[in-house]
From TrEMBL:
EC code(s) of this entry: 2.7.1.-
Recorded superkingdom: Bacteria
PANTHER family with a match to the protein in the record: HEXOKINASE FAMILY MEMBER (PTHR43085), PSEUDOURIDINE KINASE-RELATED (PTHR43085:SF1)
Gene3D superfamilies: 3.40.1190.20
Enzyme class per UniProt: transferase
MF GO annotations: ATP binding; kinase activity
Domain Carbohydrate kinase PfkB: 29-304
InterPro entries: PfkB_Carbo_kinase, PfkB_dom, Ribokinase-like
Protein name from the UniProt record: Carbohydrate kinase
Recorded family membership: Belongs to the carbohydrate kinase PfkB family.
């Protein structure tokens, strides 16, 4: 079993072409949240996975639970809370890049405590955590303690997925990430994440520091400019496949899910997955991840692909 930790919410899309002065705005909602998406993405790729988060007992929480169950993501670790469900409003610009407005103060996914984590980790292959759950307490403190307890026992993965409209204080993000990094095996960031966190530092310098601290695999996504992967022994850069972009919502989550899926397969078939991260291996798993992300960009919202879809895309998509 693989565990994904973090928020579960509804993305509410503002449709294009509606006047700013309109009284009636026909919103369209979709279950989401970065960790929620990663969990579903991993399951669609064939991995047994559970989501660890707080989910409201309200009717929106019931819908989130139903989606997870329909996607065959385990809900046995979900902590039900008598608190609201987070809503994340999304409005796209002319080229499909989203901007966000979150409404989640006091919401269920921010209320996870150590008391909610009373289960056996013996069979857990890995844990992924990320996004604004890293900086909203008590969930943030719970995830930090979980990382501390499980470091060295299973694969630990981090995607900061910076959301300054949830926590606008960049210093808080830096402090929390600095506390988590010593425990992490895998770190994925976007160029936008690093520009927000460390605007005056070259991304390659930041990645080098992370590798020196013990991170075994680091990845940097650059949107239409492709992605780079680093291990302790190799580095590759891959272009983004050419697709007709509908929007970029969920692209990073798809990349993350694909990367973790490849690492779990590597973990199952090699004595030491980190030593197996040669240039050829990085190129293979990176190419799979960028193709998977491109598929998501070709569809509305965070509609992550299945394993069969990714395999077809590897042969069909042009770079």
């Amino acid at each position: 079993m693989f565990i994904v930790c973090g928020e579960a919410l509804f993305d509410v899309f503002v449709p294009e072409g509606v006047s700013q002065a309109a009284f009636a705005v026909p919103f369209a909602a979709r279950a989401g949240g970065s960790p929620f998406n990663v969990a579903i993405g991993l399951r669609r790729l064939g991995q047994p996975v559970a989501l660890l988060t707080g989910v409201s007992t309200d009717f929106l929480g019931e819908r989130l639970m139903a989606v997870l169950q329909a996607e065959q993501v385990s809900v046995e670790l979900i902590a039900r809370k008598s608190a609201p469900t987070t809503l994340g409003f999304i409005q796209k610009n002319a080229v499909g890049v989203p901007s966000y407005a979150f409404y989640g103060t006091g919401a269920a996914d921010r209320l996870l405590s150590m008391a909610d984590i009373a289960f056996d980790f013996a069979a857990v292959k890995g844990i992924h955590m990320g996004s604004y759950s890293l900086v909203v307490s008590p969930t943030a403190d719970t995830l930090l303690e979980l990382a501390r307890q499980q470091a060295g026992k299973c694969l630990l993965s981090l995607d900061p997925n910076i959301r300054l409209n949830v926590e606008p204080d960049v210093h808080q993000w830096r402090v929390r990430i600095a506390k988590l990094l010593p425990f992490m095996d895998v770190v994925k960031v976007s160029d936008e994440d690093l520009a927000a966190l460390y605007p005056d530092v070259e991304p390659e310098s930041i990645i080098a520091d992370w590798l020196a601290s013990g991170v075994k695999l680091a990845s940097l996504t650059r949107g239409s400019e492709g992605a780079s992967l680093w291990s302790q022994q190799a580095h590759v850069t891959l272009p983004t496949p050419r697709v007709s972009v509908v929007d970029t919502v969920g692209a990073g989550d798809t990349f993350q899910a694909s990367l973790l899926n490849s690492l779990l397969d590597l973990q199952a078939n090699t004595a030491d997955w980190a030593l197996a991260l040669t240039e050829a291996t990085l190129r293979r798993i990176g190419q799979t991840a960028v193709c998977a992300a491109a598929l998501t960009c070709s569809r509305q919202g965070a509609d992550l692909p299945t394993g069969d879809e990714v395999q077809r895309a590897l042969t069909e998509l042009r770079v």
